[in-house]
Amino acid sequence: MFKLLRKFKEGYIKFRVVPDPVKPIIITKDLLINKIQDVYKDKEYKFFSGDTSINVFAIRCTTGTDMFDDYVGVAYFSGGHLEVDLYPATTEPGRHWLLNPLRATGCAIMKEGQYLGSYAIGGHGKSKYPALRQIKAIPVYRDNNLDNNHDLDESTLDTGIHYTNIHHGYGATLVRKNSAGCIVIQSKDRFNNEFMPLVRRSAEIYGNSFTFTLLNINDFK
Fold this sequence. Notes:
alpha+beta
């Protein structure tokens, strides 16, 4: 005991400081209700506050997977209270289209940002089922190196109307062919029975024009 105390006083003993582990960010409705408006404000994005005027957004959580591991959300005021609906989704193309892009310039991956009035209710796919269809130019990265990673290379940005629509993924477990660059809500039932009714209700009051905001999970630190 005395030898240890003497070594401590003489500076022989060194202590290693171990930093606290970084806590993962868990996206929940409560977190979004508390933080979503602050995130918009910090980025100087427009947040619509009219009753039932919806803010359609997505949160990119991971890249390089073929999973529905991102989120699409709808934030809106109802009776003076902020409500948030949240849907498992993907904000990147499925692995099939990364390896087999529709264009020689590469597969589309939407750049994070806010795109005012960029969507309207319209038909998607061969059946033209009701979804949110891109109507204004949005920048996308072009990934054409034919690997499994989502490459967000600023030098490949391509701005235009690429029909990166917001639609459903038929309840599939993996993204695969369900997204070639679109924003895709995993559940067909929730898309049809929850998401689109909110969209239609907002359109009836405020018109068929919707702003889309693509955020990153790190925005909620």
